[in-house]
Write a structure and sequence with these properties.
The complex is a heterotrimer of chains A (205), B (197) and C (480).
Chain A (H helix, E strand, L loop, with lengths): L9 E3 L6 E3 L23 H21 L3 E5 L2 E5 L1 H10 L3 H31 L5 H14 L5 H12 L7 E4 L1 H19 L3 H6 L4
Antiparallel strand pairs in A: 1-2, 3-4, 3-5
Chain B lengths: L1 E2 L6 E2 L9 E3 L6 E4 L6 H19 L3 E5 L2 E5 L1 H10 L3 H31 L6 H10 L6 H15 L4 E4 L1 H19 L2 H11 L1
Antiparallel strand pairs in B: 1-2, 3-4, 5-6, 5-7
Helix pairs in contact in B: 1-3, 1-6, 2-3, 3-4
Chain C lengths: L32 H19 L4 E6 L11 E4 L2 E13 L2 E8 L12 E5 L2 E3 L2 E3 L3 H4 L2 E5 L10 E3 L14 E7 L10 E4 L2 E11 L6 E7 L12 E4 L4 E5 L2 E5 L3 H6 L1 E5 L11 E6 L2 H7 L6 E7 L10 E4 L2 E11 L6 E7 L12 E4 L4 E5 L2 E5 L3 H6 L2 E4 L12 E6 L4 H4 L30 H8 L4 H13 L10
Parallel strand pairs in C: 1-9, 10-18, 11-17, 14-18, 19-27, 20-26, 23-27
Antiparallel strand pairs in C: 1-4, 2-3, 3-4, 5-8, 6-7, 10-13, 11-12, 12-13, 14-17, 15-16, 18-21, 19-22, 20-21, 21-22, 23-26, 24-25
Helix pairs in contact in C: 7-8
Classes of the chains: A mainly alpha (205), B alpha+beta (197), C alpha+beta (480).
Chain lengths: 205, 197, 480
């Protein structure tokens, strides 16, 4: 007998974790305790995740090509993309900070998108990849994803601080909005994905 | 019985003591926890967090001095600056993740916890709890703090940068939110709701 | 595995007495310390933030050029004491600047507080406010007087005000015919040292002279006395004299910026705020209007000036023998003191029982002989003056600084006095004008002086000389 809830006929309420019998096929089933709509799996999980993931990937291109921060001083203004910002930090000798920004703004989003991509494909193609590992990866993606907002916050803080008129001013560039979009879209993509699908797709031996 | 949210495996309900956590036998995901003082404690922390939220946003958080000109600004100033520069979407997002999400979470919890602590069930408990739980991952104060550090490092080559009162309140707020997350025990809350209903 | 719902099953009941279920005690858990501490901290901060708030003020200007909300500051004497919170448009012509001030300014935010913006400006040839190009324009003010009613809305001045009353120093008013190169900011010199500035000048009320407001720094204020003479020292003074071309100038600064110099011959009282002096057009002019050693300075007290103004002549029998040097309020504030100077050669006309009157204007009376119109002369009719006469039995000669009453009008009998100066006692040894110097001439009376020189007896000389002088208007000498 399957030890999986669904196979055993139970549905887990996603907000209060109560188990209910899955007998009634009515769409309008509601949790008896908290009133949330009951669903065995996250609704439309694969389709939504794909859509959001692709949108994020599209935004990622301008996010890196367009400048995210513009610093103006008496000598003129300097526009930086994420990459050029990292490069200039290395140039100034700040390896620690440079690595951090590189990691948060480039490595993390890319890995996140790649992992989600892999997870989605693995479910649809029924790969034999260890479901436990995949579930672990999924948890990591969910937790770490928000950290890619780091550089955007740095821009915001810089804008907040450096408002000294002709002497020095910091403004955000358009790239920042695209980058924020990437982060938001990937966060939604991850939360739309139902990891239980991994286990559903892997036949238990 | 409990089903794992990651792999759907059924488990017998664990008997946990305060402070213990239970994990899925198959995939290792967290399935249950029991915290000390789930209602009163969380309530106290949430109140403290609310006050700190107000302080952290009202007082300037960093000051920047260059050529004799000093600017000490609040967190909101950055948001306004982004808005004025045309990056409205980014401005709203940052406002949401640093101010609104924590605020809604705090207020939502208070809305639930205060009556529960006093012995009553507030209307729409479920909705409120669901709502504020969803916002946990959207409150990115820890990321913001790291960003402050990075910005300080970057800007201190240009000028003198100092941490002001708002920054300390912000750190305290973050600590409070983390403590709240630890003290938050959904099962205990629902148990109390059922007791009182 | 059973298919039942619900929470975990309880264990079966044991037989026998059971442990009572102990409910958690309702004690105040230590966790409440945290919000308590935070509440206290927050409360203190909020309390301080609100109480420490200084006055919030709105200043209305025509334009907010240079001022930025949240950035521009308010400075007073180079110290930052406030900042601009908001810049709002009130209507098509006006802008509101909302300002938060340091709480210490509270007592000064009264009706007479003056606000203006410091930005790069040029006025009167002086450029100011250049530092604001880098630092940004800022607001500054003159604090209001403490006692006055408080207000929170002000109309800002478009130009910085004349900083007259609040600068430390002695405020004086000088009257002159021509401004001649003077500007606001021109300096005052005493013995070639810069001791003060010109604050401001404007046409006098009656349009007859220009009023120049000056200030002498406190450290030098004591050098200004009631006897001080002021002259326009700006530019270059060129005169052709017996020695040839004479070029005088106070300093390079005064060539460019104009300047005023003064000296203070011995005697006289220290000047007070508000004292009025005549500003001569040049040093030569000073010398011309008074004899070299200053003549006899007298103080005339009267209820009101009544038309007497600076430079007015002092008449003896319709002949100018001196001039009004300055005027101001007496120490007790009740009378006006007019300081006059009688030229050296005429000093002995003034005796202890001399009467002075205000000769400005006309007095008329209708008498048996018809309408008599008294006026010292057409000159005084126009511009005022002081007349005096000495009784037939002249009293003692007076010393410098003597005080007389200035009668508001002449009395007929005074005009008829014919004093016999020979009956008077000779001049006291202290007075340096006995004898030879009496014949010291400055211009017009050369003929008379020459004639007087021909008569060797001092006492009789005086008498005869005077007789000759005052016998008639044409100045011809009449032998005794």
């Amino acid at each position: 007998m399957s030890s999986d809830a669904l196979a055993a006929g139970f549905v887990r309420c996603s907000s209060c974790e109560r188990l209910w019998p899955a007998a009634q096929p009515e769409k309008a089933a509601r949790c008896g305790r908290c009133g949330a709509a009951l669903a065995a799996r996250k609704p439309d999980s694969l389709r939504r995740s794909w859509a959001l993931l692709i949108a994020a990937a599209i935004c990622y291109v301008p996010a890196n090509l367009l400048p995210v921060m513009i610093v103006s001083g008496p000598g003129g203004s300097e526009a930086d993309t994420i990459l050029s910002g990292v490069v200039s930090m290395f140039g100034a000798g700040w390896y620690g900070v440079g690595v951090l920004i590189f990691f948060a703004s480039i490595t993390v989003p890319v890995l996140k998108m790649l992992i989600l991509f892999a997870l989605l494909v693995s479910v649809q193609r029924r790969w034999a990849w260890s479901p436990r590992d995949r579930t672990r990866l999924y948890r990591i993606v969910e937790l770490v994803g928000r950290w890619s907002m780091l550089d955007m916050f740095v821009v915001s803080v810089s804008v907040a601080l450096v408002q000294l008129g002709a002497v020095a001013t910091v403004e955000p560039g358009i790239g920042a909005t695209f980058f924020a979009a990437v982060v938001v879209l990937t966060m939604f993509a991850a939360s739309s994905f139902d990891p239980r699908l991994i286990w559903d797709a892997t036949p238990r031996k | 019985m409990i089903a794992c949210e990651f792999c759907d495996l059924l488990h017998r309900p664990p008997r946990l003591e305060a402070g213990q956590k239970a994990y899925c036998a198959r995939c290792g995901g967290s399935i249950a926890k029991r915290s000390r003082n789930p209602i009163e404690g969380t309530f106290a922390l949430t109140l403290a967090a609310l006050m700190l939220l107000v302080l952290a946003n009202y007082f300037p958080f960093l000051s920047f001095a260059l050529e004799g000109q000093v600017q000490a600004n609040r967190i909101v100033t950055g948001v306004i600056g982004l808005w004025n520069a045309g990056q409205a979407g980014l401005a709203l997002l940052i406002l949401f993740t640093t101010v609104l999400a924590p605020a809604v979470r705090i207020l939502g919890l208070l809305y639930v916890l205060a009556p529960l602590a006093a012995g009553r069930v507030p209307p729409a408990v479920a909705g409120a709890l669901r709502f504020q739980e969803g916002l946990i991952s959207w409150a990115m104060l820890d990321v913001y703090m790291m960003a402050m550090l990075v910005a300080i490092v970057k800007l201190s080559q240009m000028a003198e940068v100092h941490l002001e009162l708002g920054a300390y309140c912000f750190v305290a707020l973050f600590a409070m939110l983390t403590a709240m997350a630890t003290a938050y025990d959904r099962e205990a809350l629902w148990d109390r709701v059922e007791e009182l209903a | 595995m059973s298919a039942d719902n619900g929470p975990g099953t309880a264990t079966g009941q044991d037989a026998g007495p059971q442990e009572p279920v102990v409910k958690g005690r309702r004690r105040l858990s230590a966790i409440w310390l945290i919000p308590a501490v935070v509440a206290v901290v927050a409360g203190t901060l909020a309390y301080r933030a609100i109480l420490d708030r200084g006055p919030q003020v709105v200043v209305v200007f025509e334009s907010a050029e240079g001022l930025k909300a949240g950035k521009s500051k308010v400075q007073y004497r180079e110290v930052e004491v406030g900042s601009v919170d908001e810049v709002k448009v009130r209507d098509l012509e006006h802008v509101e600047i909302h300002v938060s001030l340091d709480p210490r300014l509270h007592p000064f935010v009264t009706q007479d507080m003056a606000w203006w913006v410091v930005r790069p400006r040029m006025s009167g040839g002086v450029i100011s406010g250049l530092q604001t190009i880098v630092s940004g324009a800022y607001l500054t003010f003159e604090p209001g007087s403490k006692g006055k009613p408080q207000t929170r809305e002000f109309t800002g001045l478009e130009e910085p005000p004349i900083p007259a009353s609040n600068r430390p120093g002695l405020d004086l008013v000088l009257h002159t015919d021509e401004v001649g190169g003077l500007q606001a900011g021109s300096h005052l010199y005493f013995r070639d040292i810069e001791v003060g500035d010109v604050l401001h000048y404007a046409l006098a009320q009656d349009g007859k002279s220009v009023e120049v407001q000056v200030i002498v720094e406190d450290a030098y204020a004591r050098w200004v006395t009631s006897h001080s003479r002021f002259w326009n020292a700006g530019g270059v003074d060129v005169s052709v004299g017996a020695e040839g071309l004479d070029v005088k100038t106070e300093s390079l600064a005064s060539i460019v910026g104009g300047g005023i110099a003064f000296d203070s011959p011995a005697g006289g009282e220290p000047a007070k705020d508000g004292d009025v002096f005549w500003l001569h057009s040049s040093r030569a002019d000073v010398a011309q209007s008074e004899s070299t050693h200053g003549g006899l300075g007298l103080v005339l007290e009267t209820g009101s000036l009544g038309g007497v103004s600076l430079g007015n002549p002092v008449y003896y029998r319709e002949l100018p023998v001196g001039a009004v040097v300055s005027h101001g309020l007496a120490k007790d504030g009740r009378t006006v003191q007019v300081r006059v100077n009688v030229e050296r050669r005429y000093e002995s006309l003034v005796r202890s029982n001399t009467v002075f009157w205000n000769a400005s204007g006309i007095s008329a009376d209708l008498g048996l002989s018809g309408l008599h119109v008294h006026a010292e002369s057409l000159k005084s009719l126009r511009s005022g003056g002081v007349g005096f006469a000495t009784p037939p039995e002249p009293g003692l000669p007076v010393e410098d600084g003597s005080v007389f009453e200035l009668h508001p009008e002449v009395k007929q009998k005074w005009l008829e006095w014919q004093p016999d100066f020979s009956a008077g006692k000779p001049a006291s040894p202290g007075e340096p004008h006995a004898g030879a110097s009496f014949f010291h001439h400055e211009g017009k009376t050369e003929a008379q002086a020459a004639e007087a020189a021909a008569e060797p007896q001092p006492g009789a000389q005086k008498h005869g000389f005077l007789r000759r002088l005052f016998g008639g208007h044409d100045g011809s000498a009449k032998p005794k």
